[in-house]
Amino acid sequence: MGETQEIKQYATPDININELLQAHPDAFIALLECGMGCVSCPSATLETLAEACVVHGLDVDDVCDYVNHSLAEKENQ
Fold this sequence. Notes:
By secondary structure, the chain is mainly α. It has 4 helices and no strands. The termini are far apart.
């Protein structure tokens, strides 16, 4: 039986978007790909990922999974 690889949790629902982007600049592209065009907006520096997802009608768990997988792929390149 194959093992599933544990994905590092870079993005969590409670992380501040600005903190995420400062720690992992490549998260910018992943967030844009999820439909979050506001990541460069000044108000994004005040919001958690969960709060921004509510505004954009996105599922925060799906967004976290996508960002975490994207960043893990970048890290493994």
